[in-house]
Structures are given as C-alpha cells and as structure tokens.
Design a protein that fits this description.
Helices cover 68% and strands 6% of the residues. It is mainly alpha-helical and 200 residues long. The chain has 2 domains: 18-71, Arc Repressor Mutant, subunit A (Orthogonal Bundle); 86-197, Orthogonal Bundle (Tetracycline Repressor, domain 2), CATH 1.10.357. The protein is elongated. Pfam families: TetR_N (PF00440). Keywords: DNA-binding, Plasmid, Transcription, Transcription regulation.
C-alpha cells in the first residue's frame, strides 16, 4: 500500500510505502521498546511529516498495533511455526521452546519478543493493552491446543509455557545467549512433559 504526502514549498507529492513503514517501525519498537521510540523519530525514519503520519496510522499506538500484527503474522509466531510441523502436545511444545531459544538471542541489535517485551513497563495504557491483547491470544492458542490431550490442566500448562517464554525473552534482552536459553528450554521441556504425563 502506498500513501502520498504533499511538500508545501512546491506542491510536489511524495509517496511512501505503508508496508515498508510498518516494517521499519516494527524493528524500532522491537529493538528499543515502545516508549523509547518517539513520533518525531518515527517520522524521520519513515521520511514522512506529522500530517501524513497521523493520516496513515492515526497515532503512535495505531502504528504499534500494525507493527504487532505484522510481527505476529510472520516468522516470529513461534508457536504457529511449531504447530505447523505437526505432532502431539509434547512434541509441539518442545519445538516451541527450542525455537524461542534460537530466535530470542540478540541479532543486529534486536532481542526477545516484540509482543512480550515491546510495551513492558510502558507508560502508555493503550500500547500496554494492545500488547496484552495479543499476548492473551497467544496463550489461548496454546491452551486450546493442549486441551486436546489434557483438558483439565490446559490452562495451567499453557501458562507454564508462556511464562517460560516470557522469561526467555526477558533474559535474551538482558544478554542471554542461545546456549543458555537452549539449556533452559530443555529443562522447561522436561518439566512440561512430567506435568503433561501427570494428567493421565
């Protein structure tokens, strides 16, 4: 999608690609967190003026929502990727945890999960609500999948997985490397398998 902007001095119209803008904003929010990225910086990075920014996205939170949705629809949807490869609950959850351990460590200045950490400690209630809504949707997807084998404990088992992933994301942002996160993921997986077996 391409939007346009008018340059006041000569009346020229300059186009910008909204999809590229969302991609750029997603990377900024992911690397530094929602509060650390200001509207002025976003305008500069996206090469658009405030009127065009607000016309395209409504607000900074509106752009953040677009960025979150783009992030969750891509390769960062760890559970979705693990689920797509098939298998039972134990196999899919193991794959989920190990994939998180591989993807969360810092690469090119970006670490952790945007959904889990992008609005952490944010002073903006709208941004926090957007991230929480998406986080809850992720928990629900894991819970519904686990319920196929362990309906009585699906909620607490899903919470175990997502709390583990939140911890891994935070640790990655604090500098934990893939080896450390993989070791944790393996331990978490063993604990999950024990709890899943206890359901029977």
């Amino acid at each position: 999608m391409v939007a346009t902007e008018t340059s006041g001095a000569r009346g020229r119209r300059r186009s910008f690609d909204v999809d590229e803008a969302v991609e750029t904003a997603m990377k900024l929010f992911h690397a530094r967190g929602y509060d650390a990225v200001g509207v002025a910086e976003l305008g500069s990075e996206l090469r658009i003026k405030p009127p065009s920014f607000y016309a395209a996205f409504g607000s900074k939170a509106g752009l953040f929502e677009r960025a979150l949705r783009r992030y969750a629809a891509g390769e960062a949807n760890i559970f979705g990727r693990a689920l797509a490869d098939g298998g039972g609950v134990a196999e899919v959850i193991e794959r989920t945890l190990l994939l998180a351990a591989r993807l969360y460590p810092e690469r090119n200045g970006v670490a952790g999960c945007l959904v889990l950490d992008g609005a952490r400690n944010s002073a903006d209630p709208e941004a926090c609500a957007l991230a929480e809504e998406m986080r809850k949707a992720g928990v629900a997807a894991i819970r519904d999948f686990i319920a196929g084998e362990a309906p009585e404990r699906a909620g607490e088992l899903a919470d175990f997985v997502t709390i583990a992933m939140r911890g891994m994301s935070a640790a990655a942002r604090d500098g934990a490397d893939e080896a450390a996160l993989t070791s944790f993921a393996q331990m978490a997986n063993r604990a999950f398998r024990r709890e899943l077996a206890a359901e029977g």
